[in-house]
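Researcher: We're teaching a course module on how sequence relates to structure. For the next exercise, students receive a sequence and then see the predicted structure as tokens, so they can try to spot secondary structure elements on their own. Here is the exercise chain.
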Amino acid sequence: MGTPIVQVDAFTDRAFGGNPAGVCILSEARSEDWMQKVAMEMNASETAFLYPEKDGYRLRWFTPAVEIPLCGHATLASAHVLWECRHLSPEKDARFYTKSGLLIACKRGDEIEMDFPSQPASPCDAPPNLQAALGLKPVETQRNELKLLAVFDRENDVCNLKPDITAVRKVPVQGIIVTAKSETAGYDFVSRFFAPNAGVDEDPVTGSAHCCLAPYWCQRLGRQELLGYQASARGGMVRVKMAGDRVLMSGKAITTLRGEMLV
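Model: And here is the predicted structure for the students to work with:
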């Protein structure tokens, strides 16, 4: 009997949209080497591994290259699989013990809401190679512990950006978030996320980036609840709401593949 593995498209309600994540629900912990090799084999931006712990599940996330401390779309995908495969009843919250603390996901109608830590950025000078890496000069730059936030004037600046990924790799951060106020009806802001230093040139839809985007845009727009669109080739929607030092992040998910690892 192999190890079940599921692939879920997160932050979307349509197959082949949003951000695909692998989800492995284990009966007990496996070695980091095995998890990293499975993530390489899956070759999704992140693969989630979870097994029972306390009153919930231990949850870890691996890109094809490294383990990361926080991932939104693979958390959403994990909660989706727990409910869909009857590991949890629909009325019960999914509780995840992670390197970023306890994360809780619950059903809210046809969306899944996740309680994540807010990770606000602070104003900073742009790294000297940033404009060359992105191909366009941002009007504002901020950063938190792991990510650089580059703000642009127009939605099209973000959507049409063609970064030099080799140059992006030389910027000393885990990833670069590019963002602008939305000019499209129904959305408040747009974004994209580039993280070649974590093994992902462009992430299709990035929950952890919205831990930074939410406090920035909620403060700038003077509202506590917003809808963002991540303008990758696959695209996806993320609803955010500030709750003190937490971000309530919501989205949809759809299962696209079920199988098993035979090794």
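Model: If you want an answer key for the exercise: Residues 73-84 form the longest helix (12 residues). Helices lie at 32-42, 73-84, 130-134, 155-159, 165-168, 210-221.
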